[in-house]
Please model this.
Amino acid sequence: MFEELYRKYYDELFRFLFYMVHSRELAEDLVQEVFIRVFKAYSKFEKRSSEKTWIYTIARNVAIDWFRKQKGLLGTLVHKVELESLQISHELPEEMAIERDEMRKIYACLKQCKLDHQLVIILRFHQDLSILETAKVLGWTEGKVKTTQHRAMKKLKSFIQEAEQGGTMEYQIKRIG
Model:
């Protein structure tokens, strides 16, 4: 059973944690910590939520625990983004370079958002969780997720507008929001 969970959720959890900490090595370590906690707690899993939301809740807690151990939340968000190594594309090299540059700008703007805003955006748009699943992972109501998502997108869009230099990011943020 544990091996099945590991195979099923490893990649998703890695991406989620990578978007939070912006470091491949650290994300790998944190995923391992998540699965250690899952292994230790699985017998106590009461199935009041889906396995997926339960595991994401553990991952969120692992990330928050790691942030708390650091000097501060803002200080932990300075790691270099290595998104190129996560994406396989069939685009032309010029298109790939433009997209990577736009994504770097978006993630730089996302790092300026509060942690709650980052969590909602990552869970909803990168991990494709529903509002209900996001609410369960975060321990919030669906209304709070909707409100936070709205505020997060508004704030992210304002950061992106401030950062825009050639208008090329407009299309990307519309795809996200």
